[in-house]
Automatic annotation (TrEMBL):
<keyword id="KW-0813">Transport</keyword>
<comment type="subunit">
    <text>Interacts (via extracellular domain region) with trypsin.</text>
</comment>
<keyword id="KW-0812">Transmembrane</keyword>
<dbReference type="InterPro" id="IPR000109">
    <property type="entry name" value="POT_fam"/>
</dbReference>
<dbReference type="GO" id="GO:0035673">
    <property type="term" value="F:oligopeptide transmembrane transporter activity"/>
</dbReference>
<keyword id="KW-0472">Membrane</keyword>
<feature type="transmembrane region" description="Helical">
    <location>
        <begin position="12"/>
        <end position="33"/>
    </location>
</feature>
<keyword id="KW-0571">Peptide transport</keyword>
<dbReference type="GO" id="GO:0015031">
    <property type="term" value="P:protein transport"/>
</dbReference>
<feature type="transmembrane region" description="Helical">
    <location>
        <begin position="619"/>
        <end position="639"/>
    </location>
</feature>
<dbReference type="InterPro" id="IPR004768">
    <property type="entry name" value="Oligopep_transport"/>
</dbReference>
<feature type="transmembrane region" description="Helical">
    <location>
        <begin position="200"/>
        <end position="223"/>
    </location>
</feature>
<feature type="transmembrane region" description="Helical">
    <location>
        <begin position="330"/>
        <end position="349"/>
    </location>
</feature>
<feature type="transmembrane region" description="Helical">
    <location>
        <begin position="53"/>
        <end position="72"/>
    </location>
</feature>
<feature type="transmembrane region" description="Helical">
    <location>
        <begin position="84"/>
        <end position="103"/>
    </location>
</feature>
<keyword id="KW-0769">Symport</keyword>
<feature type="transmembrane region" description="Helical">
    <location>
        <begin position="118"/>
        <end position="139"/>
    </location>
</feature>
């Protein structure tokens, strides 16, 4: 293979720029597609939350397990370049397949706007996801290692900087795609029926993947390509197996000890291979505690987003929806990576501290642990503002008087008088077992309320005449999801009506009864009442006051003296008051932790790996991410803490313990330069070879020194 002198630019090989652009497009494509998946599962395929979430997490875990496959193919068989190209083609096909699976008109033969055979779409999208997982996972370890290969000996500084730029490209890609892809989804398209444009939203990532592949292939002539050295992994496995067997065979005292357990393979395998395997096993051993970091890190998508739903997204003049908080991480990375690289590290070096890779990673774990302490503090603040919901066999009851005379209602231990349409007291909590309620009004007999109250739920008691009442189960025993606001209507008219609010329809709200809650995002909403009882000149259009985040209201629609409708609002759950801005410190701490931990980990994995196992160690690094994801699934499934803050504190404590263990392990790690070790072997091999080919040369030199 003729080596041309690599072209360079700012002291970096020019080929690097193709690799960074390729990574940017690939990440844009991946995150863009991932941002849509959950919505696509629910709204297009019609799956419920649990199934959608399970498939989604399985897909993410699969994307982190397939790197091992990619690394094996690259290091043993095709080499990194060919592996990246061939798996990118698989990836692009997968993206196209999933875009096709979201075309409604594919099976919608009767043009009614819903696919006739949903199973075709499900099958196609699953095939697409498997191909994508193969592609994205398979090329992941190869792209970063291939980038590292482009540098010469003595370019360590540029190489470290490359891993930072590489990480920056990953986050810039994910940031832009999480902003742009949802914009594409809200476009409408379709041949026969117009609806949300999933094919476009999935198609853009597919196109970008194709661009990424083309960019990578264009740079082909400039790359420094390291040849794969036979099936290295099976050799490694056989060597380790032999060492263990041999060690057990010689376990008695009469055999001399050997320095390292792998030295027991020296009867059958050469020194070089054994020393290369030692490098890998020492790094792999260090990786054992790392998944704990990722277990915390991956919760910003799940737990922290849920925390944001109980907070208020109004920050100054801007409004943020809870799921947009995640972009804070990507924005901070894009700002922090250059700062840490160009300002923080040089400052630490100026102070004369030797801030080694493993020290950086320990600091990263500590920062992530502190981020969860911050999250716990925020959670305690939120808990102070959350409403109390009924637990166990408690029920909560609130009375709404929608008639036109005063009513007295007696409960166990208290009696309350309600004026017509008065703002009721808060929910009152009772034990379901000894609950007796009576309604009375001046000059009329007492009416007992006979209703089977469901424990653990809130109920509203509507009264409008001494003997007329209706009990409604609220159905809300937690804050509304995703920071939205629950609105329901109570009909105090003689016959049923419909209400339309912001595109949602409440059908047939019957007389003296309440509708179900429907949910709306923040802002001012308008609603219209349609009823045959309302005469023409009346106004039917109403506006709500500004709705914040996470509140619930009941609108009672009564008839004014002139026969026109009037709406009166009653607050069931107060809106969130703690600002989402309070989440910024925990995101900041976690991001700083990620910058010093993750970028360093990529670079450390590359620099400590022997030349023929660079991809394998990158895959090992990605495996820690996969295991971290699995830890979250187990912990979340195993125990639900009654207090969310306690769970955060537990995670912080776990990571702190792991951090200390890792620091101790790191103390005993000695850094090596694989290239130097291998060069030494080359030199020895060369001397051996010369000796074999010319046995007299050695004698000559010896006799001359003796003279």
């Amino acid at each position: 293979m003729g080596m041309s002198v690599p072209k360079s630019c700012f002291g970096y090989p020019l080929s690097i720029f193709f690799i960074v652009v390729n990574e940017f497009c690939e990440r844009f494509s991946y995150y863009g597609m991932r941002a849509l998946l959950i919505l696509y599962f629910q709204r297009f395929l019609g799956w419920n939350d649990n199934l959608g979430t399970a498939i989604y997490h399985t897909f993410v875990a699969l994307c982190y397990l397939t790197p091992i496959l990619g690394a094996l193919i690259a290091d043993s068989w095709l080499g990194k370049f060919k592996t990246i190209v061939s798996l990118s083609i698989v990836y692009t096909i997968g993206q196209v397949v999933i875009a096709v699976s979201s075309i409604n008109d594919l099976t919608d033969f009767n043009h009614d706007g819903t696919p006739d055979s949903i199973s075709v779409h499900v099958a196609l999208s699953m095939i697409g996801l498997v191909l994508i997982a193969l592609g994205t996972g398979g090329i992941k370890p190869c792209v970063s290692a291939f980038g590292g290969d482009q540098f010469e000996e003595g370019q360590e500084k540029q190489r470290n900087r490359f891993f930072s730029i590489f990480y920056l490209a990953i986050n810039a890609g994910s940031l832009l795609s999480t902003i742009i892809t949802p914009m594409l989804r809200v476009q409408v398209c379709g041949i026969h029926s117009k609806q949300a444009c999933y094919p476009l939203a999935f198609g853009v990532p597919a196109a970008l993947m194709a661009v990424s592949l083309i960019v990578f292939v264009i740079g082909s002539g400039m790359y420094k390509k390291v040849q794969p050295q036979g099936n290295i992994m099976s050799k490694v496995a056989r060597c380790i197996g032999f060492a263990i067997k041999n060690r057990i065979r010689h376990r008695s005292k009469k055999f001399p000890k050997r320095q390292h357990w792998l030295d027991w393979a020296s009867e059958k395998y050469d020194e070089r291979l054994i020393s290369q395997i030692k490098m890998v096993t020492r790094v792999m051993f260090l990786y054992i505690p790392l998944p704990m970091f990722w277990a915390l890190f991956d919760q910003q998508g799940s737990r922290w987003t849920l925390q944001a739903t109980t907070m208020s997204g109004k920050i100054g003049i801007i409004e943020i929806q809870p799921d947009q908080m995640q972009t804070v991480n990507a924005i901070l990375i894009v700002i922090m990576v250059p700062i840490v690289d160009a300002v923080v590290y040089p400052l630490i070096a100026k102070c004369g501290l030797n801030f080694t890779s493993l020290k950086k990673m320990t600091v990263g774990m500590f920062l992530a642990s502190m981020a969860f302490v911050a999250a716990a503090i925020v959670q305690v603040e939120i808990d102070k503002t959350l409403p109390v919901f009924p637990k166990g066999n408690e029920v909560q009851i609130k009375v709404l008087n929608i008639g036109d005379s005063n009513m007295t209602v007696s409960f166990p231990g208290t009696t309350e008088t309600y004026n017509q349409m008065s703002q009721p007291k808060d929910f009152m909590t009772f034990n379901v077992d000894n609950l007796s309620i009576n309604i009375s009004s001046t000059g009329s007999p007492v009416t007992p309320v006979t209703h089977n109250f469901e424990s653990g739920h809130r109920h509203t008691l509507l009264v409008w005449a001494p003997s007329n009442y209706q009990v409604v189960k609220d159905g809300l025993n937690q804050k509304p999801e995703k920071g939205r606001n629950g609105i329901r209507f109570v009909n105090a008219f003689g016959e049923s009506f419909n209400v339309t609010m912001d595109g949602e329809v409440y059908n047939n709200v019957s007389s003296h009864n309440a509708s179900e809650y429907l949910f709306f995002s923040s802002g001012v909403k308008s609603f219209t009442i349609n009823s045959p009882e309302i005469s023409q000149p009346c106004g039917k259009e109403f506006k709500t006051p500004y709705l914040g985040f996470g509140s619930a209201f009941t609108y009672v629609i009564t008839r004014k003296s002139d026969g026109c409708p009037e709406a009166k609002a009653f607050e069931d759950i107060s809106p969130n008051t703690v600002s989402m801005a309070l989440q910024i410190p925990q995101y900041f701490l976690l991001t700083c932790g990620e910058v010093v931990f993750s970028v360093t980990g990529l670079e450390f994995s590359y620099s400590q790996a022997p030349s023929n196992m660079k991809s394998v160690l990158q895959a090992g690094w990605l495996l820690t991410v996969a295991v971290g994801n699995i830890i979250v699934l187990i912990v979340a499934g195993a125990g639900q803490f009654s207090e969310q803050w306690a769970e955060y504190v537990l995670f912080a404590a776990l990571l702190l313990v792991v951090c200390v263990i890792f620091a101790i392990m790191a103390r005993f790690y000695t850094y090596i330069n694989p290239a130097e070790v291998e060069a030494q072997f080359d030199k020895d091999d060369k001397e051996d070879y010369l000796e074999k080919s010319n046995p007299y040369a050695k004698l000559d030199s010896v006799s001359q020194t003796q003279m």
